[in-house]
């Protein structure tokens, strides 16, 4: 009986290691010192573009759900301007439905109630929040590197994240 338990634990350890090996980290998600970071990608990324899709990626501990507390906040710094409202249907949290609350220049994004999470534990996994074209976001008129601040309920200290806006297309 003791050997069977050891084999089961070893088997579980192998499965956990295999699952962890499936998670690959993009170089954009790693800072120079090797620690996890957050990134923002725009599509299209051109100056003055409208109906822009934002993809916010971050690494966060995971155990029966992402350990961000109840939500992630994105503070839009000038020259980014939020539209008067951002419909929850235009935002996804980890490829699932989200709820969105707007206050001034901050969006608070949470998974929709009733979300079922995998029980995988013990690893930092990528979390992706997508604000689709339906969110009504626009890029600044000029190209450049701008910023937003991202925080979570569990880690309320904001992290400044660069956002690159490229040249306008002819």
What's the gist of this structure?
This protein is mainly beta and 170 residues long.
List keywords for this structure.
170 residues, mainly beta, 9-stranded antiparallel sheet, 1 helix, 9 strands, 39% strand, globular, disordered N terminus
Structural overview:
This protein is mainly β. 12% of the residues lie in helices and 39% in strands. The chain has one helix and nine strands, in the order αβββββββββ. The chain has a nine-stranded antiparallel beta sheet with strand order 1-2-7-4-5-6-3-8-9, with no helix packed on it. The radius of gyration is 19 Å and the shape is globular. 21% of the residues are buried. Mean pLDDT is 81; it is low at 1-36.
Question: What is the 3D form?
Answer: globular
* Biggest sheet, spatial arrangement of strands: 1-2-7-4-5-6-3-8-9
Give the structural class: mainly beta
Distance between the termini: 72 Å
How many helical elements? 1
Outline the low-pLDDT stretches: 1-36
Q: What is the number of E strands?
A: 9
Beta-strand residue fraction:
35-45%
Main beta sheet strand tally, sense and closure:
9 strands, antiparallel
Topology:
Elements lengths: L1 H21 L15 E6 L9 E11 L8 E5 L14 E3 L2 E8 L2 E6 L9 E11 L12 E9 L6 E7 L5
Antiparallel strand pairs: 1-2, 2-7, 3-6, 3-8, 4-5, 4-7, 5-6, 8-9
């Amino acid at each position: 009986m003791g050997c069977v338990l050891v084999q089961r634990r070893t088997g579980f350890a192998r499965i956990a290691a295999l699952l962890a090996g499936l998670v690959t980290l993009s170089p954009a998600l790693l800072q120079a010192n090797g620690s996890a970071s957050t990134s923002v990608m725009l599509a299209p990324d051109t100056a003055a573009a409208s109906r822009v899709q934002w993809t916010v990626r971050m690494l966060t501990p995971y155990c029966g759900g992402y350990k961000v507390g109840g939500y992630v906040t994105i503070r839009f710094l000038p020259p980014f301007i939020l539209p008067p409202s951002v419909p929850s249907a235009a935002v996804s949290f980890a490829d699932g439905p989200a709820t969105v609350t707007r206050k001034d220049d901050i969006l608070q994004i949470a998974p929709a109630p009733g979300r079922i999470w995998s029980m995988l534990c013990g690893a930092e996994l990528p979390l992706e929040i997508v604000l689709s074209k339906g969110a009504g976001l626009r890029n600044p008129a000029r190209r450049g590197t701008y910023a937003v601040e991202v925080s979570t309920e569990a880690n309320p200290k904001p992290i400044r994240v660069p956002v690159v806006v490229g040249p306008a297309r002819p």
